[in-house]
Amino acid sequence: MNRLNTLLWTVGLSTVCIVSQAQITYGGSPWHEGPRPGAIEFSALDLEALRAEDDVTDRYKEAPWRFGVEHDVALNALEHGAWTVENGHRVWRIAVHAEGAVNMSVRFDQFDVPEGGVMFIYAADASSVIGALDHRNMKDWGGLATGILATSELVVEYRQPLDLQDMPSLSIDQIVQGYRPFSGWLHHGDRGPFGSSGSCNINVNCPQGDDWQVEKRSVALIVSGGYGACTGALVNNTANDGTPYFLTANHCLGNPGSWVYYFNHESATCNGTTAPTNQSISGGTLLVAENGADVALIELSQTPPSSFNVQYAGWDATGVVPDGTVGIHHPGGDIKKICFDYDSPFPQNVFGGTAVWYINEWEDGVTEPGSSGSPLFDLNHRIIGQLYGGTAACTGFDQNGPENNGEPDWYGRFNVSWNLGLSDYLDPTSTGTLVLNGYPVGAFANDASVSITGSPESVVCGAQDVAIEVTISNTGESTLTTCLLEYSINGGPTLQQSWGGSLAQFESETVTLNAFTTVDGVNTVEVTLVTPNGVEDENNANNTAEVEFSSFTGTTVGYSLNMVLDNWGSETTWTLKRFGQTVYSGGPYSDFTSGQVITESFCLEEGCYQFRVNDSAGNGMCCSSGNGSWSILDAQGNVVETGGEFLSVQQVQICAEATSGTEANPHRDLMAFPVPANHVLNVVWPESNGHARILDMVGRTVDEAQVQSPESQWDTSDWASGPYLISWNGASGTRQVKQISVTH
User: Fold this and answer.
1) Phi, psi values for residue 89, rounded to 5°
2) Is 2.60.120.290 the CATH number for 39-178?
């Protein structure tokens, strides 16, 4: 903890000062040559203890990224520091030293200064300064959060002319002692100013971000005390008037009035690790805070000046599922990054009904703690959500891995947030607009987009003629009357199909491409829209769409999946793969639907497949949250594999054959009687040698035995009443499953 004592300030200040305007300031410089007050002292921090705590909290997006320890203080201009008279001014100074600190900041719970008074905050070695701050920096909440300086000792200096009778009210309630270093200082080139992120993240100015140079200017890092708390973005409103509305997540909320919002905190290069912190706004007013979609809307205390060159991002409140998404964010409080998901997100409700977009995994880049609240963009460059949480990260909890871990993320859905209060501010005159471009950049005259909206959703059995449906949308201001669709099938030559009609802005029309015959294996169709209205498209980011699906043209076998959901269907996903390629997949599903049965039909080539069930919460489908289960059945309805009781993953191998196996006796099936059984179950086996298991309906083994006779009896006295499965594997590999029931 902190200890207060007075030190004799013996460090001389250089006359050279590097100005670092960490927020909107109004020029000038401090008077370093004035009397030097004693410093308030904070002892060194226990870095090992902090590191142990951070090793835990750094794993979770819901937890802010800590870079400094917050000390609660009560320091005011009447009782602390020193007043002097210099050059016809009253001057107040107070100094704070924190042993071992790599950065520091102060927060005022009272900042009320008369017109004519100015304040500066600067490093004791004169390396950097914030200021001047004056009456124009006063906030509605009465205090002021200030920016961060790379120093272990800072000085607050306030001055006003002697003839100014009104005196200020200045009170400091928090000192932040930073222990995670700024990049560029102390030779820690791997860290950003407020934290660090994993190496699988992508700087926003890498080539992947070339098409997102406008939208990135809306995104800002939120710093609260000693935490790089979250990320958010400026959003446009239908008046296009530049009101500084700022979107982030509800779970990020503390006191937005004491936050500092850093814009353009990004490396100018793809591989850079340093970034400026000289464009920020202090404070904002909370307008909307709702758990239903984890949304918060804040109006910043000041409009970012033209020198910040910010963008107010467009948005889409329709709820239409996009073909892909892009996230721009500050992971771990680090410099600005970008990530890409080339698949459509899933709309779902999770964790008490919060409406989210489910991102199965990021193909390029990733998010991390500190990214919370960051915007999710569709391919039309409009916001459709803000980051709620998830488990996506770079490989390993130490965040040093070169690849992302393939885990999911959840974003609060903008279309749901719209009816939770956003529309009151973002559509102030109730125009009914649900789709809006950004401001001041974003209104294109000729801009059309294409998406694939109709294609096989499962494996195509046999060679068939398939027609792909695509949707043409006019995202430009001019009425769309003509365009050309260029498409290729399985990497073949480019084909063309023209379109003509009349689409007003944001209107769409679906057209069907010429049919083609599927080939065995993966079929790929890529479509590109060109020359809207006979001219070059002004926005190429939404001009291309691609779809893949599989087709089996040889001998196929029918199988099916029966899945019984537990209470948390949103945690359940599954895949059926062959040679590492996904043939079928499903989930996540809706929550609070315990007992709902999901049925999927499979068309499989002969061969072996891997069926994998995942539970993102690590408690399987049974039995803490309902009696969920899954079963794979062959064409005759026999259960070939079943399960449900596991932790994070359950995986089995299924080998599909044109026949159900070599039957030792084709005239004898597995028989059991009486049904229902009371105390004894008689079983007649298909052959005299095999292995038998008794399973309950969630796949748990109740009993098992090696069969060495054509018939046997099972004692069911200790079995609970209810349905069971008898699973039998013969010596020749034959498998049969029969359902029975027991009652007492």
Assistant:
1) -130, 150
2) yes
pLDDT per position as a tens digit, 388-410: 988 888 874 444 456 788 889 99
What DSSP string runs through 354-369?
EEEEEE---SB----T
**Separation in Å, CA 221 to CA 178, 199, 333, 664:** 17, 19, 7, 69
Phi, psi of 27 (to 5 degrees): 75, 180
Q: Which phi and psi (to 5°) does residue 471 adopt?
A: -115, 125
For residues 694 and 705, is the Cβ–Cβ distance under 8 A? no
Among candidate residues 32, 71, 89, 251, the one labeled active-site is 251
DSSP 624: B
Tokens 């607009």, residue?
433
**CATH number for region 671-742:** 2.60.40.1930
CATH class assigned to 448-552: mainly beta
* 251 catalytic per annotation: yes
Active-site entry in 171, 372, 417, 570: 372
Is 294 part of the annotated catalytic residue set? yes
Q: How does pLDDT run across 482-541, given as a tens digit for each residue?
A: 999 999 999 899 999 999 999 987 688 999 999 898 887 788 999 999 999 999 988 776
Running DSSP on this structure, what letter comes out for residue 422? I
Angle among Cα 567, 571, 573 to the nearest 5 degrees reads 115
Residue 619 is predicted with a pLDDT of 86
Cα separation, 19 vs 22, in Å, equals 9
The conformation of residue 459, written as its DSSP 8-state character, comes to P
pLDDT range class, residue 474, cuts 50, 70, 90: confident
329 as an active site residue: the answer is: no
726 - beta bridge partners?
A: 694, 738
Residue 676 preceded by cis peptide, ω within 30: yes
The CATH homologous superfamily to which domain 202-436 belongs is Trypsin-like serine proteases (2.40.10.10)
Coil/strand/helix, residue 595: coil
Structure tokens at 736: 């049969």
The full set of domain ranges for the chain reads 39-178, 202-436, 448-552, 556-656, 671-742
8 A C-beta contact, residue 439 and residue 422: no
Q: Could you give the CA distance from residue 535 to residue 484 in angstroms, rounded to a whole number?
A: 11
According to DSSP, residue 45 is labeled P
439 and 236 in contact (C-beta within 8 Å)? yes
Q: With left for phi above 0 and alpha for psi between -120 and 50, is residue 126 left, alpha or beta?
A: left
- Best CA proximity match to 267, nearest among 148, 388, 183: 183
**Bridge partner list, 694:** 703, 726
Which is catalytic among the residues 58, 112, 173, 294? 294
Reduced to 3 states (helix: H, G, I; strand: E, B; else coil), residue 322 is coil
Residue with tokens 């203080």: 73
Pairing of strands 68-76, 607-615: unpaired
Could you tell me which of 444, 510, 437 has the C-alpha nearest to residue 472?
510
Strand 690-695's sheet: what is its strand order?
A: 701-707, 690-695, 722-730, 735-742
Task: Determine how β-strand 89-98 pairs with β-strand 82-86.
Answer: antiparallel
pLDDT tens column, 77-107: 998 998 999 889 999 999 999 998 888 889 8
Q: Give the rounded percent of residues in the chain with a pLDDT score beyond 70.
A: 87
